[in-house]
Every structure is written in structure tokens, then in C-alpha cells.
Amino acid sequence: MSAKPQANDWNPEAYARFRGLRLRPALDLLAQVGDLPAGDVVDLGCGNGAAAEALTARFGRRLVGVDASPTMLAVAEGYDAKIEADIATWAPESPPALIFSNAALQWLPDHPHLIPRLAGLLAKGGWLAVQMPMQSMAPSHRFLRDIAASMFPALFDFAGYQPPVQRAEDYCVWLRDLGEVNVWESLYVQQLAASDTLHPVQAFTRSTAMRPILEKLTEPEAEAFCARYDAALAAAYPLQADGTVLFPFRRVFFTVKV
């Protein structure tokens, strides 16, 4: 397997290998959304369409998928409309009943302004429902920054790094004046399947958190980086007897009904 991604865009096949683990938080989020007013359901940052079937089954109305990745949109199925757009600036043609975002907003900055902006796009009585990984300070993600900065200081400087996802309490503060707010965290102890070629945690992160680093490296640099990352992961996430790994993964959720 090549250490580098084949292109700067997302890889739907690599992302889909962990579809079940990534869909579970979406279903947990969906379970907390109540009745909707008239309007579309928007899957914001829809990726390859993992949540489309569940959203359609729950609400049975026009479903719009929005994502910045043309490659992901090309394989996403189950949408009445698909829109390629930057979430930071996207705006709907008419106020939607639900903006649902599963594991997408962590890629965008300035949440104190972004989140209220999205809530302000909703129809009266509409819902904003968001789930984001809260994993940036865990070994799986911290090692990426530490190793990259150590091996390639001319390319990576994380001295002023700030986690992209803030405390659950912060989102409560930013949203509480907008409507009915529900904020919570969940820790998923994921059992990752054994891999013949790399540590199971690297198999999980390479299609998401590793992408911004691998994109800046040459093939030999990427191979050296991945080997060192694998060694660090082996110490932090030891293999079980059957080759699997227990991988705790924290996520933050919130809903707001405006």
C-alpha cells in the first residue's frame, strides 16, 4: 500500500472501511432530533453519504447533501440534490428544517461564529444537529503533530496549536441564547480489526486526520513518517492477542431547536 494519498481530495473507499464505527455517532445524534417544521433536511458535510439512508428513513422528505469534496459527492447516494460547497460560506436557497452535520465541522475554524451562523439559516422551529470528533489531544492525533514537527520542522510547526473542537461547555454557551440546546459527550471504545500492513489505528486515521500531513510529504518521506507513527501507536495502543486494538474515541454532540 502506498503511504501517500493518491490525491488531495478525500478517498471514499478508505473512509468507507470504517463505515460502521463512523455511522454509530450519526445515529446517536439523530436519535436526539425531534419533530421538524416544513423544509428540507440538509446533510452538511455529507461525505460519501453514510447517513443518507437513516435521514430518509427518519424524516421521509427532500434530502440535500452538501460537501466540499467532488470525489465524495460522486459516490454519495440517496440524496434528492447534491451541492458542492464550502461549509464556511454555504447558504441554502430556502430555510431548511434540519441541518445535520456528522464529523465535518471540526475541519472548520471559528466555531463561535460558524455555529450560530448555521443555526441562523434554519426555518423557525428547525434543528441544528452536530457531532464532531474530540480526539485531537489523544495519542492517535497528538503523535501525528509531534512526529511531523520532529521529522520535518521546515514543513510543520504546531507550537501554537489549538484543538479545533472546544469543550462541550463552550458550545452550550455559544448556543444557549439561540433556542433549546442539548450538549453531551460520548466515549466510544472502538475495537479496530487487525491489519497485515500497518497498525489498526493508522488504518483508521490515514483517511482523515493523517491526510493534511501526508499531502505535504514525498513518497519516501511519507513512508518514513508512517513507520515512525506505527511504532508510537504500538506503544500507546497495544495489539490484543487476536491482532485487534481497543481504540477509545471521544466525540462531542449538540442539538439546538431554534
Write a concise synopsis of the structure shown:
The chain is an alpha/beta fold. The protein has ten helices and seven strands.
Using brief descriptors, characterize the structure shown:
258 residues; alpha/beta; Rossmann fold; seven-stranded mixed β-sheet; 10 helices; 34% helix; 20% strand
Q: Major sheet: size, sense and barrel closure?
A: 7 strands, mixed
Helix-strand category: alpha/beta
CATH superfamily descriptor: Vaccinia Virus protein VP39
What is the fold named in CATH at topology level? Rossmann fold
**The number of domains:** 1
Count of strand segments = 7
* N- and C-termini, Cα separation: 47 Å
> Mean of the pLDDT scores?
92
Helix proportion of residues, in percent? Answer: 25-40%
The fraction of residues assigned to DSSP E strands is 15-25%
| Radius of gyration based on Cα positions | 19 Å
What is the H/E order? HHEHEHEEHEHHEHHHE
Oligomeric composition of the shown chains: single chain
Q: What's the level 1 CATH class? A: Alpha Beta
CATH architecture: 3-Layer(aba) Sandwich
Low-confidence stretches: 9-18
What is the molecular shape? globular
